[in-house]
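ok trying again, last paste got cut off:
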Amino acid sequence: MAFSPQSCDLCGLSLRRRYVTSAFSDKTFHFCCAGCRQVFHMLAEKTGSGDPGSFKDSELFRKCLDLGIIPRSEAELAQKEERQPAAEVPMTQAERTISLSLKVRGMWCPACAWLIEESLGRNRGISDIQCSFSLDRLRCRYDPVSTSPSKIISAVGALGYEAVLPEETGQSKERLREIMRLAVSAFLTMNVMMFSFGLYAGFFTEISLDTISSLSWPVFIMASIVLFYGGKRIYRRAWAGIFAAGFGMETLITVGAFSAYLYSTYQWAQGSIHLYFDTASMLIVLVLLGKFLEAGAKRKVREDLDNLLSSRPSKVRILGQSHPHGRYVTIEHLREGDLFQVEEGEVIPADGRILSGKGSVDESTLTGEAVPVAKGAGEDMRSGTRVIQGVFRVRAERVGEDSTIGQVLQIIERTLSEGTPFEDKTDRLLKWFVPFIVVLAGMTGLACVWSGLSTHEGIIRAVTVVVISCPCTLGIAVPLARVAGISLAGKRGILVRDFSSFQRAEGVNTYVFDKTGTVTEGRWKLLKIIPAGRFGETELLSQAAAVEKESTHYIASELRNRARKAFIEPGQAEGVKYFDNGISGVVEGVEVRIGSRGFIGKALEGLAPGKGIVPPDAGQKASLVFMTTGGELSAVFVFGDEIKRSSPGVIRELKAMGHRVLLVSGDGEGTTKAVGREVGLDESYGGQLPQDKVAIVEGLQKEGRRVAMVGDGVNDAPALVKAHLGIGVSSGNDPGKEAGGITLMRGDLGQIPDFLDLAKRVNKKIRQNLGFS
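nice, full thing came through this time. structure:
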């Protein structure tokens, strides 16, 4: 069945003013809405057919019809066209939501990701939905009162895709085993202590040998299970530590527990009530409990690093003679010299040269630069960046680990595997404490024998020294102090990913701040409207929004958002024309032109930064877009990245504390220094790529400085893991913040002094616990 050009090629409804088109197999199709276009692309990619007449019989078409993605009537299409964009999530609601990251399997084209976003967006309690086809990732926020991860996973499954949590691998099975080990050991230890209480009565009253035997048998069996099943992993680490001459808490626990167990076993065989199976069991349980508390936070670290390392695309659309329109394959199939295609929203999988296409690219993942970069044929593309607008055909030049994003992730993985020279206070103490206790116990036993006591008495005293000296509280006191610190930090909006961050914070004397997204807001937006003629701001926005109503350009989007937030209704524009550096249209009979200085032309003669209405620092910190009405300059729109209100105060506070503070950025040298001056910094370095930031951190460390790196993006991640303390700033831009030891979840730099104060209190409590232990 063929539809006329006046109707949608998929659903058959009439085409309205905002209809959309798409090309497939050298043919142009017309659609009533974006939903029909995306569903058409999904079905065309899946079947390889460009005939929409057969699509209505597919299960996907019927499912999208039920979800309301494809309109079912003219009335429903009218409602869909009039629907306003959703308002921003209020801060109070955002604070109530929880982030969720899922792996999604079964997507066969980018439209699948759009379908998941669209369908989840119709569910109550889910917001900030971002599904990436090239990364096989779904990230969103959900209100735990309204929904749950299991419901979100089920909703994705209902669409025919499989969504799983990143940790649903062998790690989840290992976690269950550890929970079972702790539960069994704790249950048996409680029973061991209950039976032992009956035996201890023998120190005060006479109990028969039969009674001792009846109570001792179950105690021996349960204690044996606790030691050989519950403490299995503890002994393995202790054995490895002995061979490496690196004595730790596991070594001391093993020596103490087995000393009490073996001595008690000997005493039990003699029919004695001097049994200490409860001591041996309790040592194991306390250590297991401490390890379990730490494992919970470590599991979160592993999940976040998995999110970070997943920023490399997993699929690519390769073009070839057999598939001139391209087909998606796994990224491993991409080779140097291959031709691939990337579209809006996709992450570029390899470094290469653009052969055809034009549009804009977001390079903030690598440079931190908030301003989208225009790209065209003959220019270079770097992997890890994202296409904002346009379709590009690119020749791959560097792929895999040789690509830009591959090198960035290699730096992160290598630094994480190398670890740091930092050593925990507990580890330093136990390195000497364990051999000292073993030698002291042996000398105590020998001294008792030499003084005339029996060998039996000497053994009792030697074992007593080991058991009493065994700091069972170390197994739980230090982890509990850390967990309490993590909990307090969480209430202040600070996520602690690395336990040692509290101790590291006290030694820091140098802070390196990234600029974009850290010191600044990290969002390229409309900062100011400067009227230049007879029109006020309301009329200017109405005219601009009218001309830009159908444009997909990022400038148009920002102008429409400002008008919507101010409740300004766009006017009616006719004869809209698009150019490489601007746009024009007729509003109420008057021509309106919006664009760059070159596009506006003569209306800007003599207008320079610092003269008239143009801000003096416009060439450094902001970008200017001009608007003329009837051939005369009517407005200047100032676009740029705004400095966070807390930045100057925090930097002053850190400098007053005697810390050295630097600013680094992938942005230009002039812009970086201008922002540095505004926040009170003398040391500012622009044009810094990820490896350059690592070099700055390493250079400071070679000077003997303890460096804290503060950043928010993937471009900061290598420096975050290299620094003594990595402080990630949650700005909503990238997963790079997850490489830090701590994350400022509110994105407020004022949380840094809060964490420093909390770290002092936590470290003080840990020192107290170590002393008492």
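cool. Residues 84-95, 416-423 have pLDDT under 50 and may be disordered. The chain has 27 helices and 28 strands.
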